[in-house]
From TrEMBL:
GO function terms (MF aspect): serine-type endopeptidase activity
Signal sequence, start to end: 1-22
UniProt lineage: Eukaryota, Viridiplantae, Chlorophyta, core chlorophytes, Chlorophyceae
Main location: membrane
Pfam families in the cross-refs: Rhomboid (PF01694)
Native source species: Chlamydomonas incerta
InterPro entries the record matches: Peptidase_S54_rhomboid_dom, Rhomboid-like_sf
A single Gene Ontology CC term: membrane
Alphabetical keyword list: Membrane, Signal, Transmembrane, Transmembrane helix
Family listed: Belongs to the peptidase S54 family.
Record-given protein name: Peptidase S54 rhomboid domain-containing protein
Length: 245
């Protein structure tokens, strides 16, 4: 692991310890709880997590995908991608959730999950190769990354933002075949049931790609669109020709 990536992971862990364990007010002020927060909290909330499970899951995925992305954009590029996609996730969630984004802790943890999702997507796109080996490896990686990122992206939140988890489970159940879902365990199946309870299953319009795209239209999934927009911007910047010296 590079020093830059290790520093990013360590910073997330230290901020969580300072806010959740030490209860330090200056560090706790970094969090963006809802759309009524200050402008700078839209960026600083990238390093704030809802609980230990949220932190450990995100940092594990950041280590895996950040290592792959670093080989394409260097360490500072990973930092830039993480913060940019976190900012995009916050802004998209505020727009997509509307008035619901102003309630309670509707945005707590959205930025952190958005940052990790953006790093994963950018790494996947920048390392893409026209080979069976890459396709098989990418499919396997996504199979284990999607449940962690989408099934419960922001745990223990009010229904307004907690719908993101249910929508993510709906996406997964519509996109992947049954034998893959069976391997994901009972927890994912339970989350899928929650999605149905919220009416997301009916909105999906069936299995396969159509259902996947329909589930992505849910307002609760807007944070993912913001993260994806940031990742695509990183890909474009990384592919720009380097001027000769």
């Amino acid at each position: 692991m590079s020093r830059g990536l290790a520093a990013l992971i360590a910073l997330n862990a230290l901020i969580f310890a300072g806010a959740a364990l030490a209860k330090l007010p200056p560090i706790a002020a970094l969090a963006l709880y809802n759309a009524n927060g200050t402008w700078w909290q839209f960026a600083t909330s990238a390093f704030v997590h809802a609980n230990v499970a949220h932190l450990s899951r995100n940092m594990f995925l950041l280590w895996i995908w950040g290592s792959a992305l670093r080989r394409e954009v260097t360490g500072p590029g990973v930092w830039f991608t993480y913060v940019l996609c976190a900012l995009g996730a916050n802004m998209a969630a505020v727009y997509g959730l509307g008035v619901k984004a102003k309630a309670g802790t509707a945005l707590l943890g959205v930025a952190a999950s958005g940052g990790v999702a953006g790093v994963a997507l950018a790494a996947l796109l920048l390392t893409a190769r026209p080979s069976l080996r890459w396709i098989m490896g990418a499919a396997l990686a996504v199979q284990f990354t999607l449940p962690a990122l989408l099934a419960v992206p922001v745990p223990y939140m009010p229904a307004a933002a907690g719908g993101a988890g249910a929508a993510g489970a709906a996406v997964l159940t519509k996109l992947l075949p049954g034998w893959v879902l069976a391997g994901a365990g009972e927890q994912l199946a339970g989350a899928g049931g929650g999605a149905g309870a919220l009416g997301l299953g009916a909105a999906g319009g069936g299995n396969g790609v159509g259902g996947f795209l329909a589930a992505l239209k849910a307002p609760a999934m807007s944070w993912l669109w913001g993260a994806a927009a940031g990742a695509l911007l990183v890909v474009v910047l990384a592919r720009l020709p380097v001027p000769p010296e």
